[in-house]
Amino acid sequence: MSIFDDPGLFGRLCADDYDGPGNPEPAPAVDFLADLADGGPVLELAIGTGRVALPLAGRGIPVEGVEASPEMVAKLRAKPGGDGIPVAIGDMADVPVTGPYRLAYLVFNTLFNLVRAERQADCFRNVARTLAPGGAFVIETFVPDPAGFDRDEQVQMREVTEDSATIRLHQYDRAAQTFVRQTIRFDSTGVHLHPFAMRYLWPQQIDELAAQAGLRLAERYADWHRTPFAPDSRSHISVYRKP
């Protein structure tokens, strides 16, 4: 059993800084998802602090969420409108809700936070269970770049000041398609560790998970602006449909 099997780990470590600068701008995702919502209801897996869900709800679309981290949900509840979004506390792989939903989505590479292949498959199967006929499941992830793995495994200097230093380390398991990342901060109070892990997949492998769950690939783009997906695309937005 690894600490990365704990679905609430990311939220406990990241909730305080999750809405800070440097995170993706949600507006393009909101526009894209609103076009697919078909009036709702809509389900966000790993709803976090509501960066996508709240703007969607602001457009009159009923939104619900699943989130493993009470710390993240507390941040959501503190925002205007946050109390109006139902959130089930639980593992997104279990999808502990009933539906049916016109749309479910999992964005910002979060599928890869499930570090075991069987849990990624569980996620697709359980989403399919909660979708209405014709409903859509939208996934956003990066496309793995093996050429960058060796570069990532070098020590990366993140920040150096007169009283602190931060470095980042990666280690890849190419056979398992996983990596562990450790961000280490040294300052006057001691050494602080910020662990993170992912199990990455290529788009074709995600298509296979969807097919096993009874979903079919309907659309794929390189970004939220519907740029055509190409062999050299660095990310993808994939829309799967339930028959």
From TrEMBL:
GO terms for biological process: methylation. The keyword Transferase applies. InterPro entries: Methyltransf_25, SAM-dependent_MTases_sf. SUPFAM superfamilies: S-adenosyl-L-methionine-dependent methyltransferases. Keywords: Methyltransferase, Transferase. Residues 42-135 form the Methyltransferase domain. CDD domains: AdoMet_MTases. It comes from the Bacteria. Pfam families: Methyltransf_25 (PF13649). GO terms for molecular function: methyltransferase activity. This is SAM-dependent methyltransferase. It comes from Micromonospora pallida.
